[in-house]
Design brief:
This protein is α+β, with helices and mostly antiparallel strands. It has 5 helices and 6 strands; from the N terminus they run ααααββββββα.
């Protein structure tokens, strides 16, 4: 706190901006944030007085007053036309914004295929791309609604409630039962069906060896 921003040790906001390709320019004085500081001063100097004049004393009533009256009046009085026309917004790519705008914490997967996070044990369903994930690094995503997600590289390992319960839509489907013989071998059906030559010479369309010699 109070020092310069470290570009190698990003905060959650700095990490999200980097993933979106946005360059963050640090400001170390109120003068460098002049527009935002003036905006805050206008709100702090006017809004409390407006709430007092309208006899508003609760948070819910204040939010209703902001949406219904104050914001539109504020924009009408203080909004100015931009010096240059055009839109500076850049269309987003196919990145998953739900993962980017989340708090991210790196963890190591335990030997029992679980991840420990804030006194929770997040159970990972068996993955098809790897026999076991024990010892691998995983990223815990704490979303804005309180739910949690687990990712390993580009793979989503599961999504959970704030209490650590796996959500149904991210549970892996049950494996199909496999028939085995008495000796424990798995019967593997072939596709397409195996083509076999009949062993009986009488059923063969080709002449046998003695007939060909005669």
């Amino acid at each position: 706190m109070g020092g310069k921003a470290d570009p190698h040790r990003l905060t959650q906001v700095g990490r999200a901006l980097r993933e979106l390709g946005i360059q963050m320019i640090p400001a170390y004085s109120p003068q460098a944030r002049g527009r935002s500081e003036r905006n805050f001063g206008t709100w702090q100097g006017r809004l409390p007085q407006e709430l007092r004049l309208h006899e508003i004393h609760t948070l819910e009533a204040a939010n209703r007053f902001l949406r219904a009256h104050y914001i539109a009046e504020f924009n009408r009085r203080f909004q100015t036309v931009a010096a240059q026309r055009g839109n500076a917004f850049v269309s987003r790519t196919s990145r998953d914004l739900d993962l980017i705008f989340s708090l991210q914490f790196e963890r190591v997967i335990n030997r029992d295929n679980t991840v420990s996070f804030q006194n929770l044990n997040l159970q990972i369903e068996p993955a098809r791309f790897r026999a076991t994930l024990a010892g691998c690094n995983a990223m815990v995503h704490q979303h804005l609604d309180g739910t949690l997600s687990l990712t390993h590289g580009p793979h989503r390992l599961g999504r959970y409630t704030a209490q650590g319960t796996a959500l149904e839509e991210h549970k892996a489907p049950a494996r199909r039962a496999v028939e085995k013989t008495r000796r424990g071998k798995v019967i593997k059906p072939t596709f397409p069906p195996r083509l076999e030559i009949p062993q009986n010479p009488r059923d063969s369309h080709f002449p046998t060896a003695p007939t060909a010699a005669g």
